[in-house]
Design brief:
The structure is a single chain. With 250 residues, the protein is mostly helical. A hairpin with a 2-residue loop joins strand 1 and strand 2. Helix 2 runs antiparallel to helix 3 and helix 6 packs antiparallel against helix 7. The longest helix has 33 residues.
């Protein structure tokens, strides 16, 4: 079998951004495997990057592990056949995914201590837990403090309105987060965002959801993974929007 012309290297200006440069003349299978490895690297770095917000040393350890795997893979791929290269890339994806899983476990532990103060929140804790997210209205509703307010429905009157910034508190609390997520996503939809909308408000909307997902995780000790993933997802969207806004300004 022919040797692939592999100068598969590593390009990264910082440890936080790395990507494989896959071969000129490589096969579709190699390209696909390389894309999957790149995706795994991105996800692992997102998890480690989020960990930086809470535990610097743990985050550095995970980033070093990712870096070592990438360097090892780059060296191992040089001059390999397609079959051998695919095997190496498959193992790399597995190794990177394992580091991501470890980083997520680290993240869950530090969030439990830092964000949740080591205790499970209940609905009776909401008034204290809401902070800058909004205000508790009685025991059944939250008035949200959204970076971008959705417009009031057309049928609003001076004495009654189904306000877009007020949500019903649901049990389990994860259902409340889902409703809040829908409201915030709607506030930054194409219908509500115009050229005049400040980019920092869109960034703030994603940061709002990211932070609210963290708080929601405190209602789910031992099973907070889904909310931690929501935290990561919106944290990354905020980062990308922030980066794009800087590029546009420059």
């Amino acid at each position: 079998m022919r040797l692939l012309i592999l100068s598969i290297g590593l390009l990264y200006a910082t440890l936080a951004h790395a990507q494989f440069v896959l071969p000129i003349g490589g096969s579709i299978l190699i390209d696909k495997a390389g894309d999957e490895v790149r995706d795994s690297i991105d996800h692992a770095k997102e998890a480690a990057g989020a960990l930086l917000d809470h535990a610097d040393e743990l985050a550095r350890q995970r980033l070093i592990q990712i870096d070592e795997i990438i360097n090892r893979t780059g060296n191992a791929l040089i001059g390999k056949t397609e079959v051998a290269a695919l095997s190496i890339l498959a193992q790399t994806k597995l190794d990177i995914d394992n580091v991501r899983a470890a980083a997520l476990n680290d993240l869950r532990a530090v969030i439990w201590e830092a964000e949740c103060a080591g205790r499970r929140l209940t609905l009776s804790d909401l008034d204290e837990a809401l902070g800058g997210f909004g205000d508790l209205l009685g025991t059944h509703q939250i008035r949200l403090s959204l970076p971008i307010s959705a417009p009031e429905p057309w049928y609003c009157t001076s004495w009654w309105c189904d306000r877009p910034d007020v949500v019903e508190i649901k049990e389990p609390f994860g259902d409340t987060f889902i409703e809040i997520r829908n409201r915030v996503e709607d506030s930054i939809s194409n219908e509500n965002v115009t050229e005049g909308t400040a980019a920092h408000r869109i960034v703030g909307s994603y940061e709002y959801l990211s932070a609210f997902a963290l708080k929601t995780s405190c209602f789910y000790p031992g099973s907070s993974e889904v909310w931690n993933r929501e935290y990561l997802k919106y944290r990354e969207r905020a980062r990308k929007w922030r980066t794009a806004a800087v590029i546009r300004v420059e």
